[in-house]
Amino acid sequence: MAEANGHILSMQGIYKAFPGVQALEDVDFTLLRGEIRGLVGENGAGKSTLIRVLTGVERPDAGTMEFEGEQVLIRSPQHAQALGISTVYQEINLCPNLTVAENILIGRAPGKSWGIDWKAMNARAREILLGLDVDIDVTETLGSYSVALQQMAAIARALEISSAKVLILDEPTSSLDLHETRQLFDVMRKLRDQGMGIIFITHFLDQVYEVADRITVLRNGKLVGTYQAASLPRMELIAAMIGRILTEFDEMGKIKVESGKRIEGQALLQARGLGQTGEIEPFDLDLRMGEVVGLAGLLGSGRTEIAGLLFGVDKPDRGTVSVGGDPVRSFSPLASLKRGVGLCPEDRKAAGIVDDLTVRENIMLAVQASRGWFRFLSKQQQYEIADRYIQLLNIATPSADQPVKNLSGGNQQKVILARWLATNPQVLILDEPTRGVDVGAKAEIQKLVLSLAEEGKSILFISSELEEVLRTSHRIAVLRDREKVTEFAGAVDEQTVMRAMAGGGS
Amino acid sequence: MSATRTTSAWKRITESRLFYPLLALSLILLFDLLFVPGFFRIQVIEGNLYGSLIDILRNGSTIMLLGIGMTLVLASGGGGVDLSVGAVMAITSSVAAILMNPVIIGVKLPPDLLRFINDPNFTFAPLWEVILVSLIVATLCGLWNGVLVAYARIQPMVATLILMIAGRGIAQLITNGVRIQIFYEPYAFLGNGWLVLPFPLFIAVFVFAVAWIMTRKTAIGMFVESVGIGSRSSFFSGINEKRVKLLAYSFCGFCAGVAGLVASSNIRTSDASNTGLYSELDAILAVVIGGTLMSGGRFSLLASMIGALVIQATVTSMYAVGVPANAILAIKGLVVVFVLLLYAEQIRSLIRRFTGQRRVQPS
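YS: structure for the whole thing
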């Protein structure tokens, strides 16, 4: 087994700069055969850039790479694949309108010199998926399956490409539920035991500990260190990632208790029997001034649907909703904006950021939409507002003129928050505001939510991380199977809420 | 990070949206300088300027006008394109002609009207009315496209194809299938007049100024770009994406109307079947040469104007070196391919390597 434990991949002294940012600085990275390596760090720490260099998307400014003992310069993603380095990205890069089998095997479909042997192709795709313990109809279009299953298809595709020797998983679990995550981990362990080197990037520290053998920490483009997972205390890991000790979480508890005292009795937003057939059963919901209401529930339990109804993306077909005592008649984002209701949507890429616009323009959009076409804020006013929020929310960007697509996920999320805060909303609906965001930014966002509540705003906080719902919310509404099942006020423990989410009294 | 002042200035120039259109234009003019004697000669006759360069400005005005409107339509995204601008030009010219000279269409008019037919001062409706009504009709045509695209959610190419086909028929119906000659001199001035420089150029510059103020001094430009890049994100931010598209298509119709007036004034006829024929393609090319993506998003009106000049300069140059009219379309195609190659990332990185620059943005 001496050979199996040798280096499969080694990177030395990697440098990479983008305008205004030194994304990687003298980073060394070695991966062994048959190991699962956790790669962690805050947003902008350089994880993605390192992966992009490794997979040939970007060329390093300096540094050397060795693959299986030979010096290589990875020229392109195709080249990386040919070498045996496969990647599954955070955002699924597959075609939802093709079948699952086509997605997995496209470009390498079995068949004669012309045409495709569809039968063989479907059988092969099925076989690969069964290897991952996924049993689905591979002739259905990919888009008809849940994000989790699409993710599995993406992994299957990555495995199928060449004979992968290194598998890179970039935030593969961000949209998977517990069972699916377990399933994925089983597959990862199996592949590891076959001698594959796996790089696992995630923000979930629990998962890193669960599955990784060693953990590499990056911070601000520099390598902090590589540690044995079994012998690294969690607090030390967090300290390594953010470079300071986390006292914010304790602090937050105090703020929450303090702000909880100031909640007004009257509801700012009131939903009565609000529902949309097939999407969400009728529900009642009150948001009071200065209150953070958490929405807990599993993926697909109706959280996003509630957000959509309250914000007017979708039209309810029954029930009423009122804001500040006035019944709502017109349902549209623009009407909500004018009522002082804002939404940070779940799907940050498609419904949140406008990627080619600058940070400034992205922050201005909602304010300008509420002012209409002609009351245009001057450039100077725009910069003032943008710079104020860049500072306030601590958005890491070289300037307000940077296209927002160049920012890391957490900073993009802050830009969307800034967009809504700039409109000075009364009610703010946050749908998964911390998804794909690192520990430091997560704490910042949670703190911000509480401080907004302190200012007297009502917040509806939606998250699939129960821990953070519990930490931030004064009251928690629980959803199950597109129905609001119960509500908890005051202190409540995780187990109770989980039982309510799961249902069946177990 | 140790970039010297000169390289960063050079970078600013090459990163500018105007760089590639201007580069293309200069290359064509360089060709003229080398191979077409007298191309740059400008004569002054009665205080007005004449010459090949002036011809480019004059004949390019229609493409410029169309390009301005087309820029907004392309930028508004969702496969936005307006194929009907040529047909709208034809409709506009028919409306204008019928307003000035209604005698021909078989309506019973007093016989003494016939006396005025060759009179350069005769018009049935006053000039302002002719222009106003024609442009309203053109804008309504654009509005129709906009409704089909934004509200009926028909794909832009299909939606505007309807008016592209039907428009010429409508233009024929308006004049009862007759080509109406235009004798009215003030109207003819729109396309043929000179105030030192050709008058159509002033019209194009004026419409450009209006469009520039409309898009850059109000929120409209930002909204068009935002909708063009991410319509769903824009919708979630409270932008009424339908109204933005409606405006873009209506304005495109308006621009086509102005172009139609200039074109019909130029040939002093309303010609329903030939006015603006294939000009939608020129307009789209002008915008694409100007660097606005067919998929929408960031746009530059000035770059589209230069794009229009690139096309017209090509045509004028080819005439000047004596390429037969039939072959010009083929040459035009070559130039377009060349300019679009300048936009291809592979070629650009080659240019950058040549000029010693590194790749700048992570895509």
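YS: worth flagging: The first strand of chain B starts at residue 42 and ends at 45.
IM: good catch. Also The two ends of chain B are 20 Å apart (CA to CA).
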